[in-house]
Amino acid sequence: MTAERPAVLSPVAPATTPAERRRTTAEIWIVLGLSLGQSGVYALVNIVARLTAETPLADQSATLNASQSDRSLLDLTYQLLGVFFALVPVALALYLLSGRAGATWRGTRRRIGLDWGLDGARPGRDVAWGFGLAAAIGIPGLAFYLLGRALGITVSVQASALNEHWWTVPVLVVAALQNGLLEEVVAVAYLHERTRDLGWSRLWFIVWSSLLRGSYHLYQGIGPFFGNVVMGIVFSWFYTSRWGRQRVVPLVVAHTLLDVVAFVGYALLPQEWKDALGL
């Protein structure tokens, strides 16, 4: 793919006065406290509990996408409500960014590259980059997980524990999209915009975005923490590079693809294959 210069972005006034900087810093903590930062704190407590338990880390498990009810329609309702409320922090982050001086809702979406359907958007290019990033992260990620299991620093992750219903696969796909939007919009696009408002360098943004991504995966063990830090470095670097052009859609596509393969693949994989792979 031919590299292009970043698109010209409309000017947005950064935080310049001490009061503005304090307000921006407080806003970041509030957004993270309602979303990924909260998950990171719980994950930190969880890994401490796991490491101090009598059962070795390698013999413990973590379950994703668990059923909430034995009744099909009630379980579906719970799953969809979970997705909806998990996306509220995304809407909040976009709303707050659009409230900056010189910013608009439409301009904010274009600024972070969440502008499918707007003039100038290139969905084909975004999808192509998304598939490329998914391939670059997915294969090493699986190898890293298996290595972590072999070293005893990663728990057994059950990517799906939903009961079998007609809606199971669609809900898993929606859950994957929810994860992609939440993590990439908040941990990358929003955090990049706000740390830049505070005058942070690109390097510091990449470091903190990557550590944040690793923190809320600690409940899966030490291995996934480092694996997701690496993923965070790649994604945040790409986003701010001349190839990424500060477009978050390719990251959302890549993340969604990775989770669809993990969630749906796990749900459809025969049990003997899961046992052989240590899943």
Automatic annotation (TrEMBL):
Transmembrane region positions? Answer: 28-49, 76-97, 127-147, 225-241, 248-269
Q: Which InterPro entries match?
A: Rce1/LyrA-like_dom
Entry GO MF terms:
endopeptidase activity
Q: Which GO terms describe its biological process?
A: CAAX-box protein maturation; proteolysis
| Key words of the record | Hydrolase, Membrane, Protease, Transmembrane, Transmembrane helix
Q: Does the keyword Ribosomal protein apply?
A: no
**Domain CAAX prenyl protease 2/Lysostaphin resistance protein A-like positions:** 166-260
Keyword Ribonucleoprotein on entry: no
List the protein's name. CAAX protease self-immunity
Could you tell me which species this protein originates from? Krasilnikoviella flava
Q: What is the lineage of its organism?
A: Bacteria, Bacillati, Actinomycetota, Actinomycetes, Micrococcales
